[in-house]
Fold this protein.
Amino acid sequence: MKKVKWGILSTASIAQRRVVPAMLNCKHAEIVAVGSRSLEKAQAFAAKFGLRKAYGSYEELFDDSDVEAIYNPLPNHLHVELSIRAASRGKHVLVEKPLGMNVAEARRLLKARDEYGVKIGEAFMVRNHPQWVRTVELVRSGRIGKLRSAICYFSYFDVDPENPRNIEEQGGGALLDIGCYAIKTSRFVFGEEPIRVFGCIERDPSFRTDRLTSAILEFPTGQSIFTVSTQMVYYQKMQFFGDSGRIDIEIPFNAPIDKPTRIFIDDGKNLYGGASAVREELPISNQFTIQGDLFSLAILEDKEVPNPLEDAICNMAAIDAIFRSAKTGKWEVPEI
């Protein structure tokens, strides 16, 4: 079975903790190289995961003729620039979310994709996890009636000044880091684009990144509201409400890889006892393995990638509009 040969751009934490261990189990992907600004770090990374090649620069990785696809987990401000450089060498690119710093950046990457004739996608691994596929099936089938509302809460606590998530110039802050999930999944389940958005932001006095952000997305058929934070208790939950039921996703974004995921469907007939809720368990899976295989198959079969740039730009437009709204105090329209 032919496999796509991958190179990893940098030794970033998410690559080491989640993506690379998962992709080692892919059926259609093989990781063969890593590139870093530090040869020592690249060699240690390669030894840890049994990779054949380690490079002390990104350019050497891009110039490796064996490497067909690049995974880019660098900080947000380097997503677009480095992905364009990889694409210019004929590499397909899977870019970590969010795609970039703003819509203007994202559109540069779209132009590069078309110019160089490669496949580029955003690494929203949740898009193809079985629990999200099932949630969309339930909503589309009318299980909760007409979908009217989505509610999301997602937070963690991190005040490390060296963490890119706390560095404004590198695209840190809650909205770009985790608010993007609430926007992506709301758009996915509603199957619509937000007409307008309203945002409220509290910034850290030292970092200047948004540490507490809430927003409303108005869709043609309903609304989504969310709160995200980089300085609150670690927690995540997402719920979808219809006119005759609701769906709760227990762990929507960091789905476990060692036990089944669970979603709860409730018709609301028993408010206190919860006896009306039906629990569905989805089989154990790793969303990063699924992501790697689906992107690789898109290359092998010359098909659309799971999260194309056109969709990523729509997500970025909502993010930009929320930032604008927090400044103007008014509803803002996403501008693609």
